[in-house]
Amino acid sequence: MKITVLGTGYVGLSTGVCLAEIGHHVVCIDIDQRKIKNLQEGISPIYEPGLEELLTKNIGAERLDFTTSHLEGLKAAEIIIIAVGTPQGDDGGADLSYIEQAARDIAEHLNHNAIVVIKSTVPVGTNDYIKKILEERLKKDITIKMVSNPEFLRQGSAMHDTIHADRIIIGSDHEEAAKKVGEMYLPLHVPILFTTIRSAEMIKYASNAFLATKISYINEIANLCEAVGADVQDVAKGMGKDKRIGEAFLNPGIGYGGSCFPKDVKALLKTANIYGTNFSMLKETIIINEKQQHLLVKKAINRLGDLKGKKIAMLGLSFKPETDDMREAPSIKIAHLLSQMGTDVVAYDPIATNNAKKVIGNIIRYANSAFEAADGADALFIVTEWDEFKQIDLTRLLQKMKEPIIFDGRNCYGIEKLKSCETLEYYPIGKPAVIIEKQ
Ligand SMILES: NC(=O)c1ccc[n+]([C@@H]2O[C@H](COP(=O)([O-])OP(=O)(O)OC[C@H]3O[C@@H](n4cnc5c(N)ncnc54)[C@H](O)[C@@H]3O)[C@@H](O)[C@H]2O)c1
User: Fold this and answer.
1) What is the pLDDT of residues 71-96, one digit of tens each?
2) Coiled-coil intervals in this record (predicted)?
């Protein structure tokens, strides 16, 4: 099939590359000239494992093309997939300005009938709204059919998740259009659920808000475990064995971040408010998450007192491992809290440092390795659970520090690794501290 994707961000690029990989002819359009220039040369603008390899492979096979021209990019499209951003707006709801513009771009340049698929995460009713924008502007005699096809990939494993998705949701009021989009995905052999447009839009928000709530729930359990002297990892394991609960998303930490959960929970709350439903549970999910992002700083103050003039090493900046995305990363809040207190923060991230510099700026310092960050530090915060930190030589890291104190926001270490250290104070989340004194 001939497919055009609007937006080459995490979702649009992953989708375009994977659709080319399964044999379709894909053109990706983006308004960002630098991104497109790089992509034409096979350089990915984002860090995503396995992406660049498939990108160059499919460009080479002439199944994948990139352009900034909507006219050029839409020329042959049977299916047009909109994957532009829907960030949080000033009122907490989704900012639809990019998707409105994408609709205007399509209407202006489309010269034949096509199916328009909205893959961006959009509030219930948006497909109808975008259809109206399109129909008001499309050239005479040109018709489009709308399909809602929300995306569920996770950054850091976008390629894998797109190719091996748990399910594909296709919402449409046109049976024929839904069938055609289903056929587009057929080579993936993924279960497809056909629904109405509004149910499909709702499935995305209901899923993300549920996952965010599951995180806030286990974080509250973790805080309670600390208070009562239980171990949250054992508790989570015991809970997860119950098939009704499941093992996924029961890792306590310092709160969710990223480009989706924070904004999607707020957008669903906004929808609930508009329709007069008091979804108070979501308000608590947000409050718990904000509180959790303060946790490492709170623990450090409890242990070290005033943090003014102290040096803290911060390991990890991206909102989760295997991505360079800094959107709503807990590290941003932590960096600001510490810098406001006059703490000297030196951070290291394997991939996200350049993006972090743009978001956090020079209120903290940046190191080229975990060891450099730890040099002379009064304490160390683990903020993102990169494998590099899990596998690090802890003894060497601790030797670099002024005091061997770790506040681990991601529970990276098992007891065996901790026991191998000569001297250590280790404060995890939801578990008793581990103190090893020099013999
Ligand atoms: N990032 C994720 O993990 C994820 C997962 C599932 C769903 N989503 C949803 O998918 C959507 C896209 O997210 P993302 O993270 O890929 O966004 P992103 O910000 O990384 O990328 C959006 C891209 O769209 C481009 N763009 C904007 N207007 C355009 C236009 N008129 N024509 C062509 N290109 C245009 C931008 O230049 C940018 O490159 C959002 O609605 C998001 O909520 C994201």
Assistant:
1) 999 999 999 999 999 999 999 899 99
2) none
